[in-house]
Amino acid sequence: MRLAILGAASLRCGPPIVGTLASYFGERPLEIRMYDADAERVDLFDRLARLCFMSSYSSHQLITTSDPEEALDGADAIVLALDANCARKYLRSTSSRGLADIGDLGMVEQAVAYLIGAVPQSTPILSLLGPEILVPRSTYRRLEWPEDPTAEETFRLPFQILRWINKEEPVTDLLINHEQTPFKAWLDDPRLAELVLGTPA
């Protein structure tokens, strides 16, 4: 299954997604395409994901890109995890004229609309975004996961990611804390298999 993660370098969603995927050993092998418009941050998350996959002996194929077309090409399922940083950088890269900043929520909503505008209606979409951002599709599902980090956690998280990447601390806790998540339950949902592979639920 080709899984596109849009906004993979989100500080709120990135580590839980990586921890979940590294500890996921489902029936279907995964080709994971991590996209974020912030090339520097998505590179960090690529390094974190590869370290986690190696630590868990995961055989997932990983493609990391700052090109949304590469991430979405032939994707069987999509995870929306965009933050305002990704949305602004994406919208700036696609705008030939000046970009009006309409606030974090508005920028994310506009970026999501543009990113998935050409995606087939039958493609399953999982949103990890807030309830304010709606995706009017029959194959759409939203999870209230992961929880919003506190201000202190948000401040500490980039340093923690660097400690993991530099192997100053093991990624074991990240993997253990995400062995059972709503995201993993979605990946194992028979209805997803039916949508993606055409197998009966």
What does this structure look like?
Helix 1 links the parallel strand 1 and strand 2. This protein is α/β, with parallel strands linked by helices. The chain contains 9 helices and 6 strands. The model has no long low-confidence stretch (mean pLDDT 93). It has a single domain, classed as Rossmann fold (3-Layer(aba) Sandwich), CATH 3.40.50.720. It is globular, with a radius of gyration of 16 Å. It has a 6-stranded parallel sheet.
Task: Summarize the entry for a quick read.
By secondary structure, the protein is α/β, with parallel strands linked by helices.
CATH superfamily: NAD(P)-binding Rossmann-like Domain
Order of helices and strands: EHEHEHEHHEEHHHH
At CATH's second level, what is the architecture? 3-Layer(aba) Sandwich
Tally the structural domains.
Answer: 1
Largest sheet strand order = 3-2-1-4-5-6
CATH class: Alpha Beta
Low-confidence stretches: none
Judged by helices, strands and strand pairing, the structural class is alpha/beta
Biggest sheet features: 6 strands, parallel
As for the CATH topology, it is Rossmann fold
